[in-house]
């Protein structure tokens, strides 16, 4: 979908009783290594395609609920390093899974991809801690669950009204309500959105639903419009006051 960037649309996975689509993002680093965000189910054909691109070296579990297939990829690629967002190992343990990760993901780009992929940890929720990435050369923002954008035509009929009521269908994809309510510190979430906007991405990859091939900044502003309304209004008024003083 861009130079050195590929998408894997995997099979559905059950979450809260609902069939969720899955998507992984693969980035080829400058040294040829493959960086895999939110690995999906690994099949023989997928593995053959990846092996033709380069060695899989980094497996990313980007938030507390995106780790389902990490162990299978570790078994297939024993030389790969596994990286976990805050809360991943604890959530897996509660589900009866003992996962091993080589590194914790921090608030700044890790050494193997520094200067190529930027990152932040989205703060403000005690429950949902997500690491967001920006691949600078392709101007691609990679998020996981902060925006969900389900395409109605691809959903079972019984699921469509639920997704519409949650406000996460493709007519106006945004943060799911249960996640939004977990963000008690809205200012820290707004800081993260401001950083994403400051990166000026052209496209934005989501884990669930239609991703945005263009206009990523506009989509961020739309999806988080209620959160950012006060901050944007304050900025407009401050500029207006400055202009008045200059006149």
Give a quick set of tags describing it:
single chain; 247 residues; alpha/beta; Metallo-beta-lactamase, Chain A; 6-stranded mixed beta sheet; 4-stranded mixed beta sheet; 10 strands; 23% strand
Question: Describe it for me?
Answer:
There is one protein chain. The protein is α/β, with parallel strands linked by helices and 247 residues long. The chain has a single domain, classed as Ribonuclease Z/Hydroxyacylglutathione hydrolase-like (Metallo-beta-lactamase, Chain A, 4-Layer Sandwich), CATH 3.60.15.10. Helices cover 32% and strands 23% of the residues. The protein contains 8 helices and 10 strands. It has helices at 44-53, 70-76, 88-94, 160-166, 177-182, 186-198, 216-223, 225-246, and strands at 5-15, 18-28, 34-37, 56-61, 81-84, 103-104, 117-122, 130-135, 140-142, 203-205. Strands 1-2-3-4-5-6 form a 6-stranded mixed beta sheet. The model has no long low-confidence stretch (mean pLDDT 93).
Shape descriptor: globular
How many extended strands?
10
Question: What is the domain tally?
Answer: 1
The third-level CATH topology is: Metallo-beta-lactamase, Chain A
Q: Give the H and E element order.
A: EEEHEHEHEEEEHHHEHH
Tally of helical segments: 8
Oligomer status: single chain
Under the CATH scheme, which architecture would be assigned? Answer: 4-Layer Sandwich
Strand order of the largest sheet: 1-2-3-4-5-6
Distance between the termini: 48 Å
Highest-level CATH class: Alpha Beta
Helix fraction?
25-40%
